[in-house]
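Risk register update: the risk of archive-format incompatibility is retired. Evidence:
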Amino acid sequence: MKPLLYREARESDIPAMARIRAAEWETEEYWQRRINAYLRGELHPRDALRPRISYVCYDQDSLVGFIAGHLTRRHSCQGEVEWINVVPACRGNGIASELLRRLAAWFIEQKATRVCVDVESSNSIARRFYAGHGAEDLKPHWMVWDDIKLVLEKPRPSG
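Archived output:
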């Protein structure tokens, strides 16, 4: 079995990223436009700053997960997780954790330590994931890492 490949997202990854997002909400066309505009710096979430990044994870030739984030001023944060998705068949094997670690390292390189994420209050799985990586409740729909370095201090999952 080949190891998983993690790298910075490329424009050629956007259709697969859109398929993953569309499996949960909206259409592939919607997500292709949105992801492309976000990564090109043409779509600006509220209080977002231009520096942004996305990482992908491939298992063989299939994109199985991705994460995106940007610098921000929202909620007195310096960084914001925009999206994180892992295909259902690959959840629970550390892909989301590794993607979050890579994004956390990028935030640290950008001197952004206070990082927030918008997460539905009813999404107990996502909230448990973020809390397990050191995030705390900020307000309804939002969690925050007062210091994103906590993500890098968490032991890497096996497998």
